[in-house]
Amino acid sequence: MKLLKSFIRIVLSVYFIFAIVLFVFQRNFLYYPTAKVIHDHEVQQYGVGENVLDVVVLNQGNENAIIYFGGNAESVVNNAKSFSQIFINHTVYLVNYRGYGGSTGKPTEKNLYSDAHYLYDVFSKQHNQISVIGRSLGTGVATFLASTRAIYKMVLITPYDSIQNIAQSRYPVYPISLMLKDKFDSASRIKDISASTLVILAEYDAVIPLKNSQQLIEKFPASQVQVETVNGDGHNNLSGNARYYYLLQQFMGPS
Fold it and tell me: Tell me, what CATH number does 117's domain have?
């Protein structure tokens, strides 16, 4: 009996210690800020409170624009060369989240949302139509913006229904809904989105489970969403596939 009690105490101790680690360091598991990269592309800086956002700008001066929100460990400037070519008739804004690529501050769900609103409100004064592209973590920012502002077209690359659902699947013995600070609940926002939408999936995505992408897709009316899969690639390397760029270019169109 003493041995059993000791075993139970050890199990409970490990459980609660790991719960504390998950709670305290959860944002370290979600955000992986990237260093500033030296490049030749135009960068515009926007002051948001005490923080400064670095935004890479491509094809300045076009009538319509695209705002790009990247993944949780992505240097968004790496898209600059390809995006400037396939979106030649759009001005493209590659957003460095707070703490990423020269932007100051700390990334949180609330901060990413407020920055998205701020940037949209600035860009919408310069362009007739705004479209949005979100990749991985950035799909949560894209769906938020599309549900609260007028977005013409939306692309979701390797999206999820919510970070909460993904975390709950990975840590099923913990009450994630009570512990999680940044939930990025995209699925709940689809009802408020009118933008024509393209979803791009990676055939071998080992980061975002297919079921979480499908649960998001099912929230869209069938007539509103186009779903495509890039075969042969995973979550992090599908942007090396020519079909990926073909899908983006065809969906966004010439203007």
Answer: 3.40.50.1820
